[in-house]
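Components:
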Amino acid sequence: MSQANASALVVFIGAGPGAADLITLRGARRLALAEVVLFDALIDPALREYAPNARWINVGKRGFGHATGQTQINALLLQAAQTHQYVVRLKGGDPSVFGRLEEELEALRSQGIACEVVPGVTAALAAAAQSQRPLTRRGIGRSVSLSTAMTHLGQLQASRSADTEVFYMAGRQLPALSRKLTEAGWPGTTAVCVVSRAGWPDALTTWHSVTTLADAAAPHAERPAVVTVGAGALALTHKTPCLERHPACQNEPAP
Ligand code: SAH
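Structure:
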């Protein structure tokens, strides 16, 4: 390993769940300073406009072998920090939620490289906004749990540890998740909401119960999705008017 670049800074920025304008103002400002940007799959290409002169490197895990992906990303980050002063690591959603941030921070800290983390909108929150189903409900929903449905060993797991449970990385396993939720003690009639590509113009929301969750597999196939179970998935009394057709949303400025 070559010498650490004592003056380098690596900024981890949460890009948000989708469309470029869901990044925070601080994230966009830091991004504009980047000399080099290491970005994940699922990042909106429109974000490049915030740092047009930076070198953009795609480190999406799809481009690497499964076992070596994270090791290679860590090595690329270190290399970038050794050759540049201002490095941005752009991650989907929030860097601290299912982003393996701890591994990347450890790799950089072990070489004495300074880091900063800028939060972003995580998929669970974008899904709640998309479906207009709040994750907490006064009187009936006082706790929210964010879980990955897949363990690091590739096993599907479900729990009932909060009034609202939001499962990430379950998209390919919805019929099995329905069974696991039942085993975990959720009644079959419990409300379930599935949102894929939350925050993108083609976001899709479907509503189910624990028993009928398998119906969501076809409409959400091959799309990143979160599954919200319990109080936070309950329908409101009045139906949602169609936002896309609202005159106030027609003339939104481009990000
Ligand atoms: N750090 C990210 C999560 C990365 S794990 C965050 O904070 O959101 C990847 C998982 O996130 C996907 O399998 C899916 O479950 C979820 N996800 C990411 N983007 C999404 C989106 N736009 N809509 C719904 N789910 C999304």
